[in-house]
């Protein structure tokens, strides 16, 4: 294994010099999580991006996350070390298609998962993340909700609320390919474990789970639970963060496919280069930004 100490020290030094903050999603490589100022879920990262005093935000995540930071903090320089790190699910929804759907359901409120492009957010009434989706949906007076773009989360939502959910056909390839049989096999091998899965997983997986929640919700659930072992249905980067927080517990990731190649595209080398050059900068067209900001602000206000 490569020793990352030297490059991590270089990154920390440069970060101070440039008045930069490093934000990392839980799915980032362990050595990136270890050098970050804040490691969290999509919601926590949005909050940090909105509140930071730093001049530069190095966003270790995927494009829509850096874009959300640019929407929330337009006067800051937002860098995405690997600009090609996109989220395939976010790219499955387009603003034109959403406008058409809105025409078909004029009474529906439009809830956009943060995993969307700025253009799609600009067409949404409110955004949500896996951490606040239920509160967001329940904060709306509308009976009908257009939920974009994750069909699995839409299905889950339709089961846990009394709203009529109009789904989009998107999905996360990392979570969607987790199989129920993989989860059940792990349970057979570790019968004393609890099954905790992300709502982006397919419904067959959600059906057999003890808990369905986003990444930050997993920490909360595990914290209050007495179990020693958990089968985790989400991207495997979370293992590093979970193990750090709960060293006495064991976390089993039931499939080797639980890897998001896009999340893993950022590396320490790219972060260092990005701090040296202050590039690549993520920007959003001002008209789109202002509209998208409304949907993000509305989300941040929901308790
Ligand atoms: P959360 O960390 O907000 O649960 O997001 C999951 C995800 O897939 C982000 O890309
Ligand atoms: Fe997108 Fe899924 Fe990767 Fe998250 S894990 S960035 S939702 S493809």
UniProtKB/TrEMBL annotation:
Pathway: Cofactor biosynthesis; NAD(+) biosynthesis; quinolinate from iminoaspartate: step 1/1. Binds 1 [4Fe-4S] cluster per subunit. Gene3D superfamilies: NadA-like (3.40.50.10800). One of its GO terms (biological process) is 'de novo' NAD+ biosynthetic process from L-aspartate. The keyword Transmembrane helix does not apply. Belongs to the quinolinate synthase family. Type 2 subfamily. InterPro entries: NadA, NadA_sf, Quinolinate_synth_type2. Pfam families: NadA. This is Quinolinate synthase. It comes from the Bacteria. Its cofactor is [4Fe-4S] cluster. Its EC number is 2.5.1.72. It catalyses: iminosuccinate + dihydroxyacetone phosphate = quinolinate + phosphate + 2 H2O + H(+). It is found in: Cytoplasm.
């Amino acid at each position: 294994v490569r020793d990352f100490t030297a490059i991590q020290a270089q990154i920390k030094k440069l970060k101070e010099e440039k008045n930069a903050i490093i934000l990392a999603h839980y799915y980032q490589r362990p050595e990136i999580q270890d050098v970050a100022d804040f490691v969290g879920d999509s919601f926590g990262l949005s909050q940090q991006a909105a509140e930071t005093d730093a001049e530069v935000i190095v966003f270790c995540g995927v494009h829509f996350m850096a874009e959300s930071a640019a929407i929330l903090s337009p006067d800051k320089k937002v860098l995405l070390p690997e600009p090609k790190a996109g989220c395939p699910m976010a790219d499955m929804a387009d603003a034109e298609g959403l406008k058409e759907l809105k025409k078909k359901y004029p009474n529906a409120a439009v809830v956009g998962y943060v995993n969307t492009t700025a253009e799609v957010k600009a067409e949404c009434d409110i955004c949500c993340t896996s951490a606040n989706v239920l509160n967001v949906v329940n904060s709306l007076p509308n009976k009908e909700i257009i939920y974009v773009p994750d069909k699995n989360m839409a299905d889950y939502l339709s089961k846990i609320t009394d709203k009529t959910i109009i789904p989009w056909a998107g999905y996360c390839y990392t979570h969607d390919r987790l199989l129920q049989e993989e989860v059940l096999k792990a349970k057979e091998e570790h019968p004393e474990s609890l099954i905790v899965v992300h709502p982006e997983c397919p419904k067959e997986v959600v059906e057999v789970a003890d808990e369905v929640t986003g990444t930050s919700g997993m920490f909360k659930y595990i914290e209050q639970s007495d179990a020693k072992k958990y089968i985790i249905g989400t991207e495997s980067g979370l293992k590093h963060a979970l193990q750090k927080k709960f060293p006495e517990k064991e976390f089993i990731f039931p499939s080797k496919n639980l890897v998001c190649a896009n999340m893993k595209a950022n590396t320490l080398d790219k972060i260092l280069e990005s701090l040296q050059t202050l590039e690549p900068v993520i920007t959003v067209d001002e008209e789109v930004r202002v509209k998208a900001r409304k949907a993000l602000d509305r989300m941040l206000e929901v308790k």
